[in-house]
């Protein structure tokens, strides 16, 4: 038996259910009736209790500046983001990342470009924070000779401040942004906290710009806060794995 969408609408108006209409036309389940109507441009609406015309979502229109950023990385997938950002009128790569995020685009290491957030969410695990394009860092080393007296004085100062040097060199990694990364021994526990929407947005943007996970940023913030407020030695023992000596 052949039928048209108009027949389905008529049966619905007569009070028949989708299951009843589906059986009338030989369908085993109403989902096949839904598929029939979908192929003809209709979808089921629970609110209106009938089929309504499908409306295709409008494609997101890029702003001219967003388009220029994407085109720049299309031309240079491995280009220096700092240079590209400045060429496009941004103060820094971080500011460019914030601008793109505010327009619904995040950096994708796979595409080597900014992509719409929907695509990023489809291809990236929620537990993995997306990365920003890495800036090219160049370093130059110079050979410096010191008189013996100055060298011994410098060596003595290094020995005197050995503990601080251990914290800086052994347990932190500082990149172009000079943000510390700590390696904390021991097991991990799950902590849940409520923060403002604006602070969450700022945390996500910083995570992308610094190529750090949100957990690393929060751990660094807690450690730096405790150090400044009387827990410097405790934090030092924690990071070096040393147990506090018992006093009798």
From TrEMBL:
Superkingdom assignment: Bacteria
Name of the protein described by the UniProt record: Ribbon-helix-helix protein, copG family
Species whose genome carries this gene: Alicyclobacillus vulcanalis
Region feature Disordered, mapped onto this chain: 118-140
Lineage: Bacteria, Bacillati, Bacillota, Bacilli, Bacillales
